[in-house]
């Protein structure tokens, strides 16, 4: 395939006028066939990578059903999200085990839709004070043996785990998780600067939804945000749905951390792509009105978003983030954070040919190519 006449995303230079060639399922230096895709008036970008979301179209990753995960993967691909690392909730170990087994079984089937590149354990290793919409009944101190059991059930598919580093055994847990090849993210935490800094020095390299479920940045108590800034390898997630974080804070985060570190996530729920109403979520109920989801009966407690990652990319641009920087935060940076940047996240020769064409005017999707095949 030869994709012509488009403005092609480049990691270093933004957008360039050049062709993109594919041969089979890879970006190539020569086209493997005579198929032409005209991208005039379009940005040509890598398929998006969402490392933190819970579900969509009425399905939740934590339900651990094969059909549900397939529907999630199909919907995400239709939104230009080609690689997904869905997140589980704070649940009993038997349900977390079922989630992990379902992830491994889905990957083994290779049944289409966005590729499930792994699982994100957002719970249960969190703190009560900042649990947010997580179910406090199932919170658990960081437990290396438990993580090993879950990783075994997942057949190595656990890619990311969130923890509150002020909890007992956190530093031992972080070091063990990193040795297992799991990215550790600091979140749902009351940690002060020194505790967060120690977690990052121990090997944590990620923060879960920056600003949300953590102390604010204060001039004498900079907390997790200040520590993350001071440790260059840390990459912060940001929910950019227009609800969780004000546009000014989004712009400030990109200025603070730079385009090289920022990761946009959707944190989307099963209500994404569904009408307003009430929906189950992690053993609780949420209610959705417009683009806002809250715990039923607690309208002050946000419960995740109902915006896809592509919607978050558009919102970031609407907030004033340069398009190329927003694209990077939805593609290469998240791919790098979970170790799949060797095959995804850019349009370099040798990478998988997962490509999205976006209208230059409104960023609407004009075409999707997944591993060399037009969707």
Number of helices: 10
Overall structural class, as computed from helix and strand content, comes to alpha/beta
First and last CA, distance? 13 Å
Lateral strand order in the biggest sheet: 12-14-15-16-17-18-19
Helix content: 25-40%
Average pLDDT: 96
Instruction: Note poorly predicted spans.
Output: none
What is the overall silhouette?
A: globular
> Number of DSSP strands?
26
Amount of beta strand:
25-35%
Rg (C-alpha, Å): 20 Å
Structure in words:
The chain is of the alpha/beta class and 375 residues long. Helix content is 27%, strand content 26%. It is built from ten helices and 26 strands. It has a seven-stranded parallel beta sheet. The chain has a six-stranded mixed beta sheet with strand order 3-2-7-24-25-26. Strand 21 and strand 22 (292-295) form a beta hairpin. Helix 5 (193-202) packs across helix 6 (223-230) and helix 8 (309-318) runs antiparallel to helix 9. The longest helix is centred in the N-terminal third of the chain and has 17 residues, at 93-109. It is globular. The two termini are 13 Å apart.
Q: What's this model, at a glance?
A:
The protein is of the alpha/beta class and 375 residues long. It contains ten helices and 26 strands.
